[in-house]
């Protein structure tokens, strides 16, 4: 085994994290009799040698030895080795036409195609899981299209398990897209399978969806009704719902692990799970339907009606993609998702709450359902050790708070009192200014006791942001003390957060001016920029602030300086020459901020160059849309030449604006709608 592995010059190669010298040890560990050692080696191989799909020369050099492992019947977990080979191959075939630095997609693809016969053998292996792992290789690596198609047809026979045959339909499309000579035959064969009443409804569903993949531009309006019919056949055979096993109780995160990091890893693990046999099929169909929001909604309505909790759970995640990426009236869908808050399966209920929290700007139709759930739980639900129930309660409370509903307050107070996931409560406390009398004292106390030597777990930045949004001037002494303490420790993250909070109070924060002025010359550019912005918002002395902003235009804080200069307006005319230079900057964000400042300073005479810059940047990077729209709104009637572009944006079904998502998209649409009123 592994003959010649020591003859490879591994030291001359690298992987994602450095020298590839450890690769032989990883390969040898993949056949260890110890399952834990094998699992660790496989994770390391994916994480280093095949990091995020990358293929390095060291990855290609590993392929002969991975094949040895896959062919050796004594190798444990052979299916995982075959799946690794296929994963390397998928990435290599897809990306081998593009040149990448330090990558070897071309070499890996060539090697795997030269060893395509191995996948033919593995696809006929006696072990079902090995066959399943190998089947995609028939579509990726065999260059004889007719032979590969014939092999796939052979493996669609009823004698093979359903999962294998589902893979056959998927792989047939992979083959047809790579070798289009068989695409007509593939479509006809898949159509026949979809119409064959002898096939299981899941198999016919797979054939129907993958047939559509063969000709995505020719999808008819009959596709979704046909899919819904098959989903109902599948649902009719679902056994009565059984309780899912209760997961282990929530454990506190490891010491020194920020709670938001632990939560992010838990979310990532959850998102990658598959709960039903149809999951990948329906995800594929939603991707094919793309902007057909109505048809996708009809499909989701059916998915959410399934008696199978796994199907409903997957449907909620697909609904997340739809409402997050596409505009439209999603109120009916939101109400159906809100109904899942009462599901007997708590994981389904928690997933529904997660969607409503994420997309809170469109969650209004769920408001009363969420409030009723919190009332039923009582505030203790926030800290329950039951994993799914805790997520259900917390996400619901956070969503309701984001809607400004004071009925979330008891849960937030429980979080702050118990210190259980208080960071989540802090994130949304600022959305409840009507409860400032109860929230501000608790937040001030947390801020006073925060450990400023590190950002987490005390989360001073989040607390400062919440206090700024609540707007209670009684918090100003505590914020100023935090600014001073952060400055002494040179904790610039805390200092910047404190400056931002003070800025929200405007002139009321004047007692902090001395502390702010001490920061306008610090070495950290971003802190200096934040201090200058705050100095202007509180002190309002343009003679003091203007020279500081002009200096910042020659740093990385161009956008922040331009924003303050725009607020100063015409008296900042001295900045115009430098701002005009920035209209030719290679970074579109700098151009947008410079153009907006030029308008605010120079007014209508600058209209042509400002509009040209804004619209060009918007076309180049749609994420600039919020900033462009805000400036166009300020321009009023001078923005008339942009109306065709605005109408095109309003007619576009996909969400836009900075970072996408409902909140930014709706803000941008409101600003653009105001511009349209000038017409």
Class by helix and strand content?
Answer: mainly alpha
Number of separate helices: 36
Computed over alpha carbons, the radius of gyration is: 29 Å
Overall average residue pLDDT: 95
Bin the strand percentage.
under 5%
Shape, per Cα inertia axes: globular
Strands of the biggest beta sheet: in what spatial order? Answer: 1-2
- From the N-terminal CA to the C-terminal CA, the straight-line distance is 77 Å
> Low-confidence segments, ≥5 residues, pLDDT <50?
none
What is the helical fraction, as a range of percent?
A: 55-70%
Largest sheet geometry? 2 strands, antiparallel
Protein name: PBS lyase
Organism: Plantactinospora mayteni
Notes on the structure:
This is PBS lyase. It comes from Plantactinospora mayteni. With 679 residues, the chain is mainly alpha-helical. It contains 36 helices and two strands. The relative contact order is 0.03. The radius of gyration is 29 Å and the shape is globular. Helices cover 65% and strands 1% of the residues.
Q: Which labels suit this protein?
A:
679 residues, mainly alpha, 1% strand, globular, ARM-type_fold, ARM-like
Brief account:
The chain has helices spanning 23-29, 35-49, 57-71, 78-95, 105-114, 116-123, 128-141, 145-154, 162-178, 183-195, 201-214, 223-236, 259-271, 279-289, 293-304, 309-325, 331-339, 346-358, 367-377, 387-402, 409-418, 422-429, 436-448, 460-470, 476-489, 492-505, 513-517, 525-539, 542-552, 558-568, 576-582, 588-602, 607-620, 625-635, 643-651, 661-676, and strands spanning 14-15, 18-19. The protein is mainly α and 679 residues long.
């Amino acid at each position: 085994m592994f003959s010649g592995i020591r003859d490879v010059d591994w030291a001359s190669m690298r992987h994602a994290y450095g020298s590839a010298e450890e690769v032989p040890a990883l390969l040898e560990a993949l056949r260890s009799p110890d399952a834990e050692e094998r699992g660790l080696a496989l994770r390391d191989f994916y994480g280093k040698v095949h990091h995020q799909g990358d293929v390095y020369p060291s990855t290609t050099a590993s392929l002969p030895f991975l094949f040895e492992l896959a062919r050796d019947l004594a190798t444990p977990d052979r299916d995982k080795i075959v799946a690794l080979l296929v994963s390397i191959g998928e990435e290599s075939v897809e990306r081998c036409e593009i040149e990448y630095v330090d990558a070897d997609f071309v070499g890996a693809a060539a090697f795997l195609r030269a060893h395509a016969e191995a996948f033919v053998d593995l696809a006929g292996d006696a072990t079902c899981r090995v066959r399943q792992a190998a089947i995609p290789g028939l579509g990726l690596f065999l260059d004889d299209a007719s032979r590969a198609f014939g092999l796939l047809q052979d493996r669609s026979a009823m004698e093979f398990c359903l999962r294998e045959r589902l893979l056959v339909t998927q792989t047939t499309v992979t083959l047809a897209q790579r070798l289009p000579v068989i695409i007509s035959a593939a479509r006809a064969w898949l159509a026949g399978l979809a119409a064959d009443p002898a096939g299981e409804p899941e198999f016919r569903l797979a054939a129907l969806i993958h047939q559509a993949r063969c000709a995505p531009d020719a999808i008819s309006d009959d596709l979704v009704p046909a899919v819904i019919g098959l989903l109902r056949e599948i649902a009719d055979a679902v056994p009565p719902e059984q309780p899912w096993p209760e997961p282990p109780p929530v454990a506190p995160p490891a010491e020194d692990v920020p709670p938001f990091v632990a939560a992010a890893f838990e979310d990532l693990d959850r998102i990658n799970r598959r709960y039903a046999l149809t999951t990948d099929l329906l995800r594929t169909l939603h991707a094919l339907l793309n902007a057909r929001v109505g048809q996708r909604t009809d499909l989701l309505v059916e998915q959410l009606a399934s008696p199978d909790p796994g199907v409903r759970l997957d449907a909620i995640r697909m609904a997340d993609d739809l409402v997050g990426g596409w505009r439209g009236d999603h109120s009916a869908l939101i109400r159906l998702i809100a109904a899942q808050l009462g599901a007997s399966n708590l994981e389904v209920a928690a997933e529904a709450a997660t969607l409503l929290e994420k997309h809170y700007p469109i969650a209004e139709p769920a408001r009363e359902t969420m409030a009723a759930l919190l009332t039923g739980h009582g505030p203790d639900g926030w800290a329950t050790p039951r994993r799914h129930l805790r997520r259900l309660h917390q996400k619901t409370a956070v969503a309701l708070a984001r809607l400004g509903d004071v009925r979330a307050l008891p849960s937030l107070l429980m979080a702050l009192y118990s210190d259980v996931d208080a960071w989540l409560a802090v994130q949304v406390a600022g959305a409840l200014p009507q409860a400032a009398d109860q929230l501000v004292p608790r937040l001030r106390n947390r801020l006073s006791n925060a450990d400023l030597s590190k950002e987490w777990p005390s989360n001073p930045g989040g607390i400062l942001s919440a206090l700024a949004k609540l707007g209670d001037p009684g918090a100003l002494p505590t914020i100023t003390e935090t600014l001073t303490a952060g400055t002494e420790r040179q904790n610039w993250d805390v200092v910047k957060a404190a400056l931002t909070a003070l800025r929200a109070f405007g002139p009321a924060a004047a007692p902090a001016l001395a502390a702010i002025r001490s920061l306008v010359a610090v070495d950290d550019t971003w802190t200096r920029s934040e201090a200058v912005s705050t100095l202007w918002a509180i002190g309002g002395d343009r003679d003091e602030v203007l020279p500081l902003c002009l200096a910042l235009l020659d740093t990385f804080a161009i956008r922040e300086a331009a924003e303050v200069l725009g607020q100063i307006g015409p008296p900042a005319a001295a900045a115009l020459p430098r701002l005009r230079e920035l209209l030719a900057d290679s970074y579109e964000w700098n151009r947008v901020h410079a153009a907006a400042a030029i308008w605010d300073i120079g007014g209508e005479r600058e209209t042509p160059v400002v509009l040209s810059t804004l619209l060009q940047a918007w076309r180049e990077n749609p994420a600039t849309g919020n900033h462009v729209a805000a400036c166009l709104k300020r321009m009023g009637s001078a923005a008339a030449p942009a109306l065709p572009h605005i109408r095109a944006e309003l007619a576009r079904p996909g969400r836009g604006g900075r970072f996408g998502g409902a909140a930014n998209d709706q803000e941008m649409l409101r600003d653009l709608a105001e511009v349209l009123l000038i017409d």
